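Hi team,

As requested, here is the filled-out complex form for the C2R run. I kept the field names the same as last time so the parser does not choke. Let me know if anything looks off before we queue the next batch.

— J.
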Amino acid sequence: MKPLVSIIMGSTSDLPVMEKACKWLEEQEIPFEMNALSAHRTPDAVEQFAKGAKARGVKVIIAAAGMAAALPGVIAASTPLPVIGVPIKGMLDGLDAMLSIIQMPPGIPVATVGVNGAQNAAILAAEMIALGDEAIAAKVDAWKASLGKKIEKANKDLAEIKDYKFKC
Ligand SMILES: Nc1c(C(=O)O)ncn1[C@@H]1O[C@H](COP(=O)(O)O)[C@@H](O)[C@H]1O
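And here is what came back:
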């Protein structure tokens, strides 16, 4: 199946974080592709990718980068598709990447998730696609319902801990 989500990372050193996005999309059976491209190191390839993504059927791009994270913004500049940026934690705890990604000049937005927020990026991508795709909307709904069930069970378990004292 043609990929609906394209995951781009600045380096394969970002892969341990971005695997969480892949895992979530795989579990939901949402087709995706993944590539390492760098606005700093392979600028021509990034431009070519960004300009061609929509015509290949991609609906949302997830772009992850650490340090001086130009990649998501550079991709956003060359595509009409929504771009979700994932700041990767590095030497400055990811604050450098987060600010690089979130502080886009007016007109070229990047929807930025939290530092290392790969799974949230995948969920947000699915929610965007779900606006025009009932099957994916049903998957997102089911996922959110399962989260609710988990916390309901955790709350029940908490009530059953006999010596639990509310300390706040
Ligand atoms: N921020 C960028 C860009 C870019 O924005 O084009 N290209 C690579 N990087 C980041 O550099 C970090 C170190 O990369 P290496 O581990 O390859 O040296 C990675 O987190 C990557 O995302």
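Two things worth flagging: The CA atoms of residues 131 and 137 lie 7 Å apart. The two ends are 52 Å apart (CA to CA).

Thanks,
J.
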